[in-house]
Amino acid sequence: MKKSNIPIIKHIPDFLDYCEVEKGLSDRTQENYQHYLNKLVSWLKKTKKETLLPHELTSGDVWAYRLYLSRFTDEKGRPLKKITQNYYLIAMRVLLSYFTAKDIVSLPSDKITLPKDARAEKMVKFLNLDQIEKLLLAPNTKTTIGLRDRAILETLFSTGLRIAELVALNREQFTNIKAQKDLELGIIGKGTRPRTVYFSERALSWLRKYLETRKDKEKALFVHYKARKDAENRLTARSMERIVKKCAILGGIPIFTTPHTLRHSYATDLLTQGVDLRTIQEFLGHRSILTTQIYTHVTNKRLRDIHRQYHSGKNLKE
Q1: Helix (H, G, I), strand (E, B), or coil: what is residue 109?
Q2: Has 263 been annotated as catalytic?
Q3: Contact 82, 24 (CB under 8 A)
Q4: Cα angle 288-19-167, degrees, rounded to a multiple of 5
Q5: pLDDT digits 0-9 by tens, 87-145
Q6: In terms of Cα–Cα distance, which of 141, 137, 183 is closest to 158?
Q7: Are the C-beta atoms of 199 and 266 separated by less than 8 Å?
Q8: How far apart are the first and last CA of the chain?
Q9: CATH homologous superfamily of domain 8-120?
Q10: pLDDT tens sequence across 191-234
């Protein structure tokens, strides 16, 4: 390990390049890191620590920064939400991990722990199976648009795809599905990481029905029927979100429902069926098991309910 004589602030551009070149992170993720690290830069300047070197950063500095975040208010006097404070700390932690990867002496990243309240605030929202069924039945499948929307919903729940991954699917990936009962499909997911997703027999049947209506030569799997002739017909992420929201309203289920809600519901269903977290991590394409652990609240609640029902002590004599 080597000591760097370059201040932490001046390492940030190299860190962002590292995120792009070596980690393969998306432009949006890099922008988010830059946004959250700008707060760290402001704090270092405000506390006259802009020349602080990586190896000079102490646990005391981290604590002072956490206090700064917890007491920060915007121009309207509003404090930062716990989950937002969390994002700033995660960015700082990833920066410290970068120092370790580059053999630069610094505080270990695990010295930055995330507030329990922030983790609790990030409880995932998901649908139960009754709500999922209502959502899937919402489109009018007697129309071409309804068939497309049903195929989209079935695909999301069967595969746990992220919305960007769903948008990127092409017809040529489904040319030989007529005789198949189910399908394993290799995709390139977040951070350019490859993984396999699985289409159920039910999802494939709706994809077949939808593709049978397609008379165009568009490359995209899911297209916008009302697009201009000279425009890109591939459905955008925003269009997918509108479709899911519309179907949620039609199905009479919670309005918080988004494509990502179906990803959460997919993972939650697997977990409640007894699938272990490591397997779910692979299904979802999470780099770290820590990300997948946000779903453990589901089993924790389920175990609590079972304990209340079967082991409450109500049958014991007083």
Answers
A1: helix
A2: yes
A3: no
A4: 70
A5: 899 899 999 999 998 999 999 988 888 765 544 445 678 898 999 999 999 999 999 99
A6: 183
A7: no
A8: 65
A9: Tyrosine recombinase, N-terminal domain (1.10.150.130)
A10: 788 999 999 999 999 999 999 999 888 999 999 987 666 667 89
Average pLDDT of every residue of the chain: 86
Q: What average pLDDT does this structure show over 158-163? A: 94
pLDDT score recorded for residue 191:
75
Catalytic position from the list 49, 55, 208, 260: 260
* Angle at the Cα of 163 from the Cα atoms of 208 and 148, rounded to 5 degrees: 30
Residue 225 a catalytic site member: no
- Is 58 within 8 Å of 111 (Cβ atoms)? no
User: DSSP secondary-structure letter at 175?
Assistant: T
CATH homologous superfamily, domain 129-305: Intergrase catalytic core (1.10.443.10)
Could you read off the pLDDT of 249-270 as tens digits, one per residue? 999 998 889 999 999 999 988 8
Give backbone dihedrals phi and psi of 76, rounded to 5 degrees, phi first. Answer: -100, 10
Q: Which residue has the higher pLDDT, 306 or 59?
A: 59
Q: Please tell me which residue in 190, 209, 245, 297 is annotated as part of the active site.
A: 190
Q: Dihedral of the CA atoms 50, 12, 120, 288 (nearest 10)?
A: -140
Bridge partners (DSSP) of residue 198 are: 184
CA 178 to chain centre: 32
Instruction: Choose the catalytic residue: 162, 210, 234, 264.
Output: 162
Q: Kindly report, as residue ranges, where domains of CATH 1.10.150.130 are found in the chain.
A: 8-120
Instruction: Report which of 22, 19, 4, 190 is spatially closest to residue 91, judged by C-alpha positions.
Output: 19
Q: What is the DSSP letter of 19?
A: H
Q: Which of 39, 150, 263, 264 is catalytic?
A: 263
Q: Is 162 a catalytic residue?
A: yes
